[in-house]
Amino acid sequence: MQKLWGGRFSASADSFAEEFGASISFDKRLAPFDIQGSVAHATMLGTCGIISAAESQAIVDGLGKVRAKLEKGELEFRLSDEDIHMNIERYLTEEIGSVAGKLHTARSRNDQVATSFHLFVRSSIVDVVEAFQELQSRLVEQAVEHAGVIMPGYTHLQRAQPVLFSHHLLAYAQMLQRDIDRAIDLYDRANVLPLGAGALAGTTFPIDRHLSADLLGFAAVYENSMDAVSDRDFVLEFLSLASIAMMHLSRLCEEIVIWTTGEFGYIELHDSLSTGSSMMPQKKNADFAELVRGKTGRVYGALVSLLTTMKGLPLTYNKDMQEDKEGCFDTVDTLLGSLTVVAAMVRTWKVKESAMRTSAAGGFTNATDAADYLAKRGMPFREAHEVVGRLVKHCIANEKALLDLSLIEFKSFSSLFEEDVFQALALETVVERRTSYGGTGGESVNRQLEVARELLCRTTAWVDAATPIVRR
Q1: Which terminus of the chain, N or C, has less C-beta within 10 A?
Q2: Three-state secondary structure string covering 337-375
Q3: DSSP 11
Q4: Is 385 labeled as catalytic in the residue annotation?
């Protein structure tokens, strides 16, 4: 079959080389975006008088027919056409004849593919923000539902200080908010149109790039035609924010795995989000949490892969850049899937409040408050720290908790201890006295919940504004 670019060549490509160089196996995913960009380009060509109004309308109508067949699953993409762009052009030619060849006036595949990829990434950002928000809302719901539940907070995976379970969950909600903010920030940089840059130097035709941008909902056009076709930093940014987000999900999933163990027993996952063992009938495994944790590596890999691909490329377009898409497509699917399954786990898990409280009561999580008790009575904190350390050592030797001690025992370590030490070291007191901004005290957590609700509303407003643009 004669290639659309084959005029200069006297021999056809080797079949192995053709298969090796083709991208249709994966870039067919760009089909709706390629059609969307082509409709805008044909409309612009007609408006600017570069092709006739009748020709422009014929192309637009033909692309509409191709889109309808695509949506019905009636298009078969051919390896011989190399990529999605040439496959779509072939189908357009079958619909309207030779006038289809005028669509590529003032356009190169370089700016064409960059445009399709911008459209894809821009749309994916909105999908990802919605998925972030769904998980964030589930965390907030759980924080409200289990208000007042005390659990141990950890450092080095050792029990450290008691905190509200709600406080723990809202920490992840805040991480997700930064993921959302990164995605929204990237949207502005991805929302720039490369179409009209040509192969690298622009075009001699009197095109109107800003009209094309308006038709596609882009806020701006690339200022430099070489930059427009040669960089993929918007993809790298997406892979970067996805990697950070997967790291956050992996940390939460690690805790889910830990919390579901018999040793912790803080939560139980719903049966529909757990698996069993082919040998051991008693097993209930947090496989999906483990899988999210494992999938984080493939997202990291996509980022490192594209960074490595791009690092040595001279301006402008190079075939290496064909490697930009598979990792991005996989990352979008992996991130969206991971967010969906984690949100489902959070929404349906069973929280074992008594197990959390029992664990928080052990491990001397109120030891810092014993030191604070002495410091507030005039003892230097470093000295108070040493006194309570000896107090804990005494408890360990005698298999007691701090609240199991008598006042006489307390006073044997410092005369500053009084009867009110028992109230001061009670779990509820320890938590509620964390009144500093952002702390785990009830009032602070309530304020954090209000902030979280406001952020959810803000994200909803952004998604509502962006969706009509990316779904054109």
Answers
A1: N
A2: HHHHHHHHHHHHCEECHHHHHHHHHCCCCCHHHHHHHHH
A3: S
A4: no
**Spatial distance between the Cα atoms of 84 and 426, rounded to a whole number of angstroms:** 66
Residue type, 62: G
For 199, the enclosing helix (H) or strand (E) is none
156 is a catalytic site residue: yes
Question: DSSP secondary structure string, 371-397?
Answer: HHHHHTTT--HHHHHHHHHHHHHHHHH
User: Which of 156, 272, 278, 415 is labelled catalytic?
Assistant: 156
pLDDT digits 0-9 by tens, 374-431: 999 999 999 999 999 999 999 999 999 999 999 999 999 999 999 999 999 999 999 9
Q: How far apart are CA 195 and CA 112, in angstroms?
A: 6
| Cα distance between residue 328 and residue 299, in whole Å | 9
What are the chain's domains? 21-105 (1.10.275.10), 110-205+219-359+447-470 (1.20.200.10), 367-425 (1.10.40.30)
Q: How far apart are CA 346 and CA 238, in angstroms?
A: 25
Q: Give the torsion through C-alpha atoms of 435, 439, 441, 446, to 10 deg.
A: 110
Smallest Cα–Cα separation from 165: which of 451, 448, 450, 454?
Answer: 448
Against a cut of 0.90, is the pTM above it?
Answer: yes
> Cα(286)–Cα(418) distance, rounded to whole angstroms?
47
